[in-house]
Amino acid sequence: MRLMKLRRYLRGSGRVLVFVFAASIVWLLFDMAALRVSIDDVNTHILKERVLREREMRRQRVRATPNLKMEFKHPVQRLDPAAIRDRERPLASDVYREGSKRAVLKEKKDLKRDRFKSVAPQHKADVYNHGVIAKQDAPGKKKVPNLDFGVAVANASQVRANKVIVERDVAKESLHAVASKEKLDVNETIVLESNNLLPSKAMSHQKPNEDPNAQKEPLKPAAHLHMGNITTAVRKSGVHKVLSLDVTHAPRDPNALGQFGRGVVLPSSEDEEVRKRWDEGHFNVYLSDRIPVDRAIPDTRPEVCSQAVVHDDLPSTSVIFCFVDEVWSTLLRSVHSVLNRSPPHLLTEIILVDDFSTKDYLKEPLDKYMSQFPKVRIVRLKERQGLIRARLAGAAVATGEVLTFLDSHVECNVGWLEPLLERIYLDRRKVPCPVIEVINDKDMSYMLIDNFQRGIFKWPLVFGWNALSEDYIRKHNITVSDPIRCPVMAGGLFSIDKKYFYELGTYDPGLDVWGGENMEISFKIWMCGGEIEIIPCSRVGHIFRGQNPYSFPKDRQKTVERNLARVAEVWLDEYKELFYGHGYQHLLDKSVIDIGNLTEQIELRTKLKCKNFKWYLENVYPELDAPLVKAEGLVFNQGLRRCLSMFKDSLSFETCDLNKQSQHFSYTWLRHVRQGDLCIAPQPSLNSFSVVSCDNAKAELRWFHKSSKSTLADHFIAEFASQHMCLEAESRDDSLHLSPCDSNNSFQKWQFTHYYASV
Question: Which residues cross the membrane (predicted)?
Answer without folding.
Answer: none
